[in-house]
Design brief:
Layout lengths: L1 H30 L4 E5 L2 H9 L7 E3 L5 H8 L5 E5 L4 H16 L3 E3 L1 H10 L7 H13 L9 H4 L5 H9 L1
Length: 169
């Protein structure tokens, strides 16, 4: 009976990791879209986003802007705004204020990416993105993990050198 429970637990963990891998691939593909603009709280968040290679496009720091000003700047654009604020009270408040203002001005807003990244990587702040990403990849790529290194993992990486680098960390 205990063996059955342990095997079930391994299968559930494997399925969860596979789901997270697929979701991570979708997020990374989504963020490669040139019609995306990302909002983050501060300079360190911009650095973390760029350093993790999640997103190379236009990033706005919301701590230096008012929601109304940003909405006026983006009115008429066909861009989707991905809001990546921290997961604390101030981050939630910024998310709410900017979402309300942008939506009120008919600007498409994506908050799903933020939720998905938290689920996959267990983020508390956007600054944690590079470390959490490396930790997740290491966990998945670890030889002791139930999921063998397969195409699920390899699709995330543009080349195998990047994967080898992550495995060494």
């Amino acid at each position: 009976m205990l063996v059955g429970i342990l095997n079930n637990s391994k299968i559930m963990r494997s399925n969860t990791v596979r789901q997270k891998l697929k979701s991570l691939k979708r997020v990374l593909d989504h963020l490669k879209n040139d019609r995306i603009i990302v909002l983050v709280e501060g300079k360190r968040d911009i650095y973390a986003l760029k350093n993790s290679h999640f997103y190379e496009g236009q990033v706005f720091q919301v701590s230096t802007r008012k929601p109304y000003e940003l909405a006026q700047l983006l009115i008429g654009s066909d861009k989707t705004v991905v809001i990546l604020t921290d997961y604390d009270n101030s981050g939630e408040q910024l998310l709410e204020r900017f979402t309300e203002e942008l939506v009120a001005n008919n600007i498409q807003v994506d908050i799903t990416t933020r939720k998905t990244l938290r689920w996959i990587l267990g983020l508390r702040t956007i600054e944690d993105l590079p470390t959490a990403y490396a930790d997740f990849v290491t966990q998945v790529a670890c030889a002791q993990h139930e999921i063998c290194l397969s195409e699920d993992v390899l699709h995330i990486f543009e080349n195998k050198d990047e994967l080898a680098l992550c495995n060494r960390k």
